[in-house]
Backbone:
C-alpha cells in the first residue's frame, strides 16, 4: 500500500482519539486557543509534550504511520470533536437542542445562523507538534463533514446539502494549509454514514478534498461514544422523548453498516476506506467485494471496546481473514476506532499487539 512515496506492506496506524496523559486533561492550560499559534509558552509546552507522549506510544508500539491523537485540549473528546471546529468558523452559535441521533443526544446541536467561513486554522498546531516529534509519515484526523452537517440546527442555508458544501469549502482551505505544511494523510471520521447516505455527502467530501496534494482516508465509524456501538432506535425509546445514551433494548438492531456506504462511496475521491473488523468480524467486508472496491482498504483489527489486549496470534488471524477479501498490496491495518475510552497503558499494549500481529502476517507473505 502506498504511504506517501513509499510502498509499505500492511502499514499500521491507529484511528482517532488516544488517551491523553492524565496530567493534561482538566488542567488549566489544557485549552487550545484559537488562531495559528499557541501564544502562551506554558500551554504550548504542555500541548507539545502531550502530543510527544502520544507519538512516543505509537513509535514504541511499532506503528508505521503516526497520528496526532486528536489532542484538542480539555477532557471532553466527544464534545470537542464537534464544537472545536464550529468555534473556529463564522456562522455558528454554540447553543441548540439535543442532537437527534442515537447515542449522541447527550451533546447539543449547534445552530448555524449565518454564512460559514473558516476564521482560524483547525489542525495546524497538531500537525506541527506531531511532525516535531517523529520522522515517520503523519496522519491528522478531522471530524467528518457528514457529522458536522447532520449535527447542525440549520437556520441559514436552504437545506442540509447547501450547509454541507459551505462546511466543505472551509475544510478545503484547512486541508490545503496542512498539505502545504507536510501532512502525509488526512483522515475524515464519518460516524453518521452507516445510518444511510443522501445526495450530498459524497459531493461535499469531493469539494473538500479538491486540488489538495495529500492522501485522504475516510474512517467510517460503527459507534464508540463512551464505548457504545451505534444502533437503530426502537419503540422502547419513545417514552423518554429523545434518544438517550444506553437507554435501549439489549437486542436493538445495529445499522446495516457497510451496506449503507455503497454504492455512494465508490464516487468519493479518497485514497482509502477504513472501518472496524476486529469486534464485528469479517461480514462487513463482503460489500467491498460485491461493489468491486478497488482502492486500498484499512481494516480495523483491534477491538477498542474490550479492555483485554489481543495476542499477536489473534491479531494475525483477523488479518488473514481480511486477506480473503482484500489483497495484501491494497491492505492497511488499524485499530477499530479511537482508543480514548481505554486506560492509556491498555491502549499502548493494543498498539503493540497490532504491530506484532502485522509482523507475523508480513513474514508469511514474504515466504
Residues:
Amino acid at each position: 500500500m502506498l504511504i506517501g512515496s513509499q510502498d509499505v506492506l500492511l502499514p499500521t496506524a491507529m484511528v482517532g482519539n488516544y488517551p491523553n496523559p492524565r496530567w493534561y486533561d482538566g488542567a488549566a492550560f489544557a485549552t487550545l486557543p484559537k488562531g495559528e499559534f499557541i501564544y502562551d509558552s506554558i500551554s504550548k509546552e504542555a500541548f507539545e509534550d502531550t502530543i510527544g507522549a502520544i507519538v512516543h506510544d505509537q513509535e514504541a508500539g511499532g506503528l508505521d504511520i503516526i497520528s496526532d491523537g486528536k489532542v484538542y485540549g480539555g477532557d471532553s473528546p466527544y464534545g470537542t470533536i464537534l464544537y472545536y471546529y464550529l468555534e473556529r468558523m463564522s456562522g455558528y452559535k454554540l447553543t441548540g437542542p439535543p442532537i437527534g441521533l442515537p447515542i449522541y443526544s447527550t451533546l447539543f446541536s449547534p445552530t448555524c445562523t449565518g454564512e460559514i467561513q473558516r476564521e482560524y486554522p483547525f489542525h495546524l498546531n497538531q500537525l506541527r507538534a506531531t511532525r516535531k516529534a517523529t520522522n515517520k509519515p503523519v496522519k491528522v484526523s478531522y471530524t467528518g463533514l457528514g457529522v458536522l452537517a447532520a449535527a447542525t440546527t440549520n437556520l441559514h442555508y436552504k437545506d442540509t446539502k447547501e450547509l454541507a458544501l459551505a462546511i466543505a469549502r472551509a475544510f478545503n482551505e484547512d486541508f490545503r494549509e496542512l498539505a502545504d505544511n507536510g501532512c502525509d494523510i488526512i483522515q475524515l471520521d464519518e460516524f453518521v454514514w452507516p445510518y444511510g447516505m443522501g445526495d450530498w455527502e459524497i459531493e461535499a467530501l469531493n469539494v473538500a478534498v479538491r486540488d489538495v496534494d495529500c492522501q485522504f482516508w475516510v474512517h467510517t465509524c460503527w459507534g464508540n461514544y463512551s464505548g457504545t456501538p451505534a444502533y437503530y432506535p426502537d419503540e422502547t425509546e419513545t417514552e423518554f422523548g429523545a434518544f438517550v445514551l444506553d437507554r435501549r433494548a439489549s437486542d436493538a438492531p445495529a445499522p446495516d453498516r457497510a451496506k449503507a456506504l455503497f454504492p455512494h462511496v465508490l464516487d468519493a475521491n479518497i485514497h482509502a476506506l477504513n472501518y472496524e473488523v476486529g469486534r464485528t468480524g469479517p461480514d462487513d467486508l463482503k460489500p467491498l467485494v460485491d461493489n468491486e472496491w478497488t482502492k486500498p482498504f484499512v481494516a480495523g483489527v483491534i477491538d477498542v471496546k474490550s479492555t483485554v489486549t489481543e495476542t499477536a496470534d489473534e491479531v494475525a488471524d483477523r488479518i488473514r481473514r481480511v486477506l480473503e477479501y482484500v489483497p495484501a498490496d491494497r491492505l492497511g491495518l488499524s485499530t477499530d476506532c479511537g482508543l480514548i475510552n481505554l486506560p492509556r497503558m491498555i491502549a499502548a499494549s493494543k498498539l503493540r499487539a497490532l504491530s506484532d500481529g502485522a509482523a507475523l502476517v508480513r513474514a508469511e507473505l514474504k515466504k
